[in-house]
Design brief:
The complex is a heterotrimer.
Chain A (H helix, E strand, L loop, with lengths): L1 E2 L2 H6 L4 E4 L14 H20 L6 E3 L9 E2 L2
Parallel strand pairs in A: 1-2, 2-3
Antiparallel strand pairs in A: 3-4
Chain B lengths: L4 E8 L16 E4 L4 H9 L3 E9 L1 H6 L1 H15 L3 E4 L6 H16 L4 E5 L4 H6 L4 E4 L7 H16 L7 H4 L8 E4 L4 H13 L29 E6 L3 E3 L15 E4 L11 E3 L7 H5 L7 H9 L5 E8 L7 H17 L4 E6 L1
Parallel strand pairs in B: 1-3, 1-4, 4-5, 5-6, 8-12, 8-13
Antiparallel strand pairs in B: 2-3, 9-11, 10-12
Helix pairs in contact in B: 1-6, 3-4
Chain C lengths: L1 E8 L2 E4 L4 E3 L2 E4 L1 H9 L4 E9 L5 E4 L1 E5 L2 E5 L19 E7 L1 E6 L16 E2 L2 H4 L8 E9 L5 H21 L8 E6 L9 E9 L2 H4 L8 E2 L9 E3 L1 H5 L3 E2 L9 H5 L2 H8 L6 E10 L4 H18 L3 E5 L6 H14 L3 E8 L19 E6 L2 H4 L9 E4 L2 E3 L15 E3 L19 E4 L1
Parallel strand pairs in C: 1-9, 2-4, 6-22, 10-12, 14-18, 14-19, 19-20, 20-21
Antiparallel strand pairs in C: 1-13, 3-4, 5-12, 6-11, 7-10, 8-9, 15-17, 16-18, 23-24
Helix pairs in contact in C: 1-3, 8-9
The chains are: A alpha/beta, B alpha/beta, C alpha/beta.
């Protein structure tokens, strides 16, 4: 589940939560200009796909804006 | 003088004195009169009530061979014809709690009122609270006396055929049937009453008790993305341009399924957002923000995912009652399962 | 800050030769009241009609109900900032008000053009539907007003609200020089230091995220509606209208904000049951988790710096705005500030949870019942004899007719009508609640 209100998604029980940008533009950010917007959106989407391959025990956040190990943690 | 209240008490192998976990497979048996905590129960019920029999069953036997055990319990109850069945208290013991909830359910199905008691986190509460009267207790049997004192008046009233009032006033675990209720005192006064009580450290009863959200077991991870069929669902209110399907902007009662098999990307000429909960204009300029088709197509071409599923699913996720949302979600999930979809991205606004 | 409020109860309302108040009777010179409205070139048409309690009258579309108030002594003007009015800090001196009276803003203008968000409130002056709202007990002077059709949505909003305020100002001016029949002093006097210190955290919607405009029309603080950090207001500023203006629901109107019984009791019991420190206005509808949490943290921090030991929390919105509200409660509780939350509930069908994000820290909730009229089981409002406003009513989502928004969903206003989809008693006027 890709959501800008990711903590709420976690407390209410979604198991694989991907931090989206903002309610008005979840998978990207038009303020970045077309190229960076696309790269950012792609990072969100690939993080989501990675989450599908990750074993989780319960609600877990996957943060495309974090790097490495910080990217996954339970709330 | 009315006849004494006839009570049948259900306990597990431990409280019947048979033994612990090693005896949890013992089947249903019946003892005349009160056994173990049943004597305290009888005392709590007062002199006009009698525990006419105690039904005993091992927790494993009740949980693992439930049909058989419940049939045996049912046969005894048909024979005994009690006014009320009391099960437990089970406190924090999960399998005992589940057994108590199941026994109460079976008694009720046979037309005999029933009540049990256990800790609010006992899985028996999650299983049984919708149908069974459950008195909340502490986690351990040290709270036996207090639990029975709270349970006894409910057992009496149920046994005499009285309907119980709301959980909030009667003290049982809420059954999830919230309804409109006039408290005959304006809300602002009740709020300030509560504030004063809380400031002075007095107990307050919340009119909306906290309930932990439901947990769903996570789906197992995908093995190989490059062979996976990936679907997309959005609650961002995606509609075809001009909303020809006449979807609502809030309080959705249905979702729409669209084919994207011919599309590389969602264009503003073909799609837009119709959603009463956020500023739609940005999505209207690029609908891929709420349904990332363009990205998945690129990944499909690169071979990083197996395939983009032919259909997308869309509705506005705003103001839809949870019960309706659950139904819509189940229906989408079932559709995806039948289409042998491996993974799904849900974009929520 | 000391404010004396002089109240002029209105028990009779009629059109007459001169706008004047005498022993509870308010006479209104219709042309003089309308002249102030018609001065504004943005206004195309304007008319005044009276609706009295008990009459078979339906008013549609109702954007706002305003209680006329006027500053008699002290700086500034009542309802400051909104629609370009003066922004001098209010709350001192003397204010006169007309009680039992509403100026109703009746217009087809919608809030903004994003997201299908419509004006949906209609009011009945009699019958079970009408009696659910405090306005059916008021004498209502209805301004039926339409702006120049060429204006943008935002300009239309400010034009028609400005017109309603002009009428309210005209009425209130009639009691400016009179001796008030009732007087009450509001002042946060020093009190017994042993009394518990409390704040009121008053959540108000911002239309900024929905409309994409930082100046979109809605409930304002000194005229501002944009997403801003928490505001600390002296209660007297609120009494003078520093917080005013409508939002989408019938209980989020200028009149309800001005007469919020929770707020007024907090003021009146200051020094007796608690030490009331002030009002923290919490703007809602931030659109990222980070912003929502930041605003929750900062609101709680502000309450803590003021020394609050307790807080009452209300909100006037729905949906994701719940997150910053409930997380403010959580943040307060974590700072040791004891909270009480007054809120409506979502649909409970099939045992569904009625709090969007249930958090264990929100352990003292007062429920004002379900927020949707459909869940409340509110019956269709019966036909009426007279309509003030538009003859036809578009019927949108949540009602039995026209579930899809579209041109075909209209009904005669005078006929039986489904209730608007929201009820939502934000400030606990009524005693309805839920139980299980």
């Amino acid at each position: 589940m890709i959501s800008a209100i990711y903590q709420f998604a976690l407390t209410t029980g979604a198991n694989r939560v991907i931090r989206g940008a903002r309610i008005e533009h979840v998978c990207g950010d038009p303020g970045l200009g077309p190229e960076k917007d696309y790269a950012f959106g792609m990072r969100i989407v690939t993080t989501a796909l990675h989450a599908l391959t990750a074993p989780v025990a319960g609600p877990t956040l996957f943060d495309p804006m974090a790097s490495g190990k910080e990217a996954e943690h339970a709330p | 003088m009315a006849d004494p209240l006839r009570v049948v008490h259900y306990v597990n192998q431990f409280f019947a004195g048979i033994g612990g976990e090693e005896h949890a497979d013992v089947g249903v048996s019946r003892r005349e009169g009160a056994v173990g905590p049943g004597r305290l129960l009888e005392k709590a019920l007062g002199k006009d009530a009698r525990v006419v029999a105690t039904l005993v069953c091992g927790d494993n036997a009740m949980n693992d061979r439930g049909d058989e055990a419940l049939a045996a319990v049912g046969a005894h109850l048909a024979d005994l014809q009690p006014d009320v069945v009391v099960a437990g208290p089970a406190f924090g013991s999960g399998r005992y709690g589940l057994a108590c909830a199941a026994v109460c359910g079976a008694a009720q199905a046979a037309g005999i009122p029933a009540v049990t008691a256990m800790h609010p986190d006992n899985p028996g509460v999650a299983m049984g609270r919708r149908d069974v009267f459950i008195v909340p207790t502490g986690e351990s049997a040290t709270g036996m006396q207090a639990a029975l004192e709270r349970l006894a008046p409910l057992a009496w009233r149920l046994g005499r055929g009285e309907a119980l009032g709301p959980a909030e006033t009667e003290g049982y675990v809420p059954q999830g049937r919230r309804r409109v209720h006039d408290r005959e005192r304006p809300g602002y006064q009740r709020a300030l009453d509560m504030l004063v009580a809380k400031l002075h450290g007095r107990p307050v009863v919340s009119e909306v008790p906290y309930r932990a959200p439901e947990r769903v077991a996570p789906a197992p991870p995908l093995g190989d993305l490059s062979r996976a069929r990936i679907a997309m669902v959005t609650t961002g209110g995606l509609v075809r341009k001009g909303n020809p399907d006449r979807q609502v902007s809030a309080n959705a009662a249905r979702y729409h399924r669209h084919s994207v098999s011919e599309l590389e990307s969602l264009t503003p000429e073909g799609w837009e957002a119709y959603h009463a909960g956020y500023f739609n204009h940005i999505v209207n300029a690029n609908p891929n923000y709420i349904l990332p088709l363009s990205f998945l197509r690129d990944l499909e071409r690169q071979g990083r995912i197996g395939a983009v599923h032919e259909h997308i699913y869309a509705l506005p996720g705003v103001s839809t009652p949870v019960a309706a949302a659950v139904g819509l979600g189940r229906s989408i999930a079932e559709d995806l399962r039948l289409a042998q979809v491996d993974g799904c991205l849900l974009v929520a606004t | 800050m000391r404010l004396e409020v002089g109240t002029f109860p209105v028990s009779d309302l009629a059109f007459g030769r001169e706008t004047r108040y005498e022993r509870g009777r308010l006479e209104v010179n219709r042309e003089a009241a309308l002249a102030a409205v018609r001065e504004d070139p943005r206004i195309a048409t304007a008319a005044l009609e009276i609706a009295r309690p008990g009459e078979s009258v339906r008013i549609w579309p109702v954007r706002d109900v305003i209680e006329p108030r006027v500053k008699v002594e002290g700086p500034g003007i009542c309802y400051p900032g909104i629609c370009g009015r003066d922004i001098a800090t209010v709350g001192q001196g003397r204010t006169h008000r007309l009680s039992g009276l509403g100026v109703v803003e009746v217009s087809s203008v919608n809030w903004h053009d994003a997201g299908g968000d419509y004006v949906e409130t209609y009011l009945d002056m009699s019958g079970p539907y009408g009696e659910m709202y405090p306005y059916a007990r008021l004498l209502n002077l209805c301004l039926v007003v339409e702006p120049d059709a060429a204006l943008g949505e935002e300009s239309k909003n400010y034009a028609v609200h400005g017109a309603a305020l002009a009428v309210a100002d005209h009425l209130a001016a009639a009691v400016r020089g009179l001796e008030p029949p009732e007087r009450e002093v509001f002042e946060l006097r020093p009190v017994d230091p042993a009394l518990p210190k409390v704040v009121y955290i008053w959540g108000v919607h911002s239309p900024q995220a929905m409309s994409g405009s930082p100046t979109a029309f809605c409930t304002t603080t000194y005229g501002l509606t944009q997403l801003t950090p928490p505001w600390l207001l002296h209660p007297n500023e609120v009494i003078d209208g520093a917080l005013t203006g409508p939002y989408r629901t019938a209980f989020a109107m200028s009149w309800t904000v001005a007469n919020n019984p929770l707020f007024l009791d907090l003021c009146r019991r200051h020094g007796r049951d608690w030490n009331f420190l002030g009002v923290i206005v919490l703007r809602t509808e931030w659109t990222t988790q980070t912003e929502k949490q930041l605003i929750a943290n900062q609101t709680a921090k502000l309450a803590g710096m003021l020394g609050a030991g307790g807080a009452v929390v209300t909100w006037d919105a729905g949906g994701n705005e719940f997150i910053e509200v409930v997380r403010t409660i959580q943040a307060c509780e974590r700072l040791g500030i004891k909270t009480v939350f007054l809120t409506s509930e979502d649909d409970a069908t099939d045992g569904a949870p009625t709090m969007l994000e249930p958090l264990p820290e929100a352990d003292a909730i007062v429920s004002t019942s379900f927020f949707k009229n459909a869940t409340l089981g509110v019956a269709e409002a019966p036909a009426v004899e007279r309509v003030i406003g538009l003859e036809r009513k578009a019927v949108h989502r949540g009602s039995r007719v026209g579930l899809h928004a579209g041109p075909d969903g209209t009904l005669p206003t005078a006929g039986p009508l489904p209730p608007p989809w929201r009820y939502d008693d934000h400030y606990g006027f009524g005693s309805l609640s839920c139980i299980e």
